[in-house]
């Protein structure tokens, strides 16, 4: 499973205090994409230097309409300035990351190791950092973009956040410093039922860098169905602020890591297109975001069917994703996204991913003095360079 990003631009992120105790307006009462009627978009959109017509302007191409509320409501100039030359997509150089699947509550046990009836939980997750950073947890909060800074507003104008927990450079670091006491909270306040306020917001932000980066993980709290009735922390959404742009991370289904077999080799099974079962899958179906077909089958699919072969839901666009990998002669070759993330495949039966050697890009030198390896997320994102649009909305 991977992630793609929708963005809200025009914001400069500064390493300033990220608290706002008062909020004059209740955003739940404002007009949002989720509760408004009518069309929000024009008849076409621009991407990667191309123009694509929209058959359904009332629908958000990359997800649900409510996802747009998480990107803010700041207007942008119109008409847009014409892009100069090729609109090439470059990778994001992320310095920090919280692994979404690792965010959880762990109930504190007794001294003898037995399960405790206590209401205390330890919030745990795994983080990667290419620079010093800090983690802070906010409750019943939402992000606020004001005066070029990211701040936080709280429900009922009551500030509720943890202290800052600082971390050094390193990957696979475990955060377990915060103790959550469920007895001090009403369960209704910990359950997300819609709107802009989230019960738990886990924030990681760079420290002592020129242009601060921030990632926020919005979570809700559920109750287990078994006899323990333990609380379960469930991550819902993730956003990142990088280079003055706010990105909403979306799940991409079908980018699995290679699995190690018993003899130490890697298993590449399941990476083929689910239609032809021969070429490696490299095309994402929107808006369901299933990466399950190859380029050739995508061309055939758009003329015959309009449903995703995985979930059977109607699709509006197909996007082919490829990566560029550096070669020994300092050039670049085009590979599939799966191969770009996982390395060379044991069986390369695909023929449509042609090898294109290009001039090397300007890659900034790695910072000296890092005592630990670069984060897994940073290495992956720096491999994904090119995004090619296959076809427009049906």
From TrEMBL:
Recorded name of the encoding gene: Acey_s0060.g3173
Protein name: RING-type domain-containing protein
SUPFAM superfamilies: RING/U-box
A Pfam family recorded for this sequence: zf-C3HC4_3
Keyword presence, Zinc-finger: yes
InterPro entries, A to Z: MGRN1/RNF157-like, Znf_RING, Znf_RING/FYVE/PHD
Keyword entries, A-Z: Metal-binding, Zinc, Zinc-finger
GO biological-process terms attached to the record: protein ubiquitination
Organism lineage string: Eukaryota, Metazoa, Ecdysozoa, Nematoda, Chromadorea
Superkingdom: Eukaryota
UniProt GO cellular component terms: cytoplasm
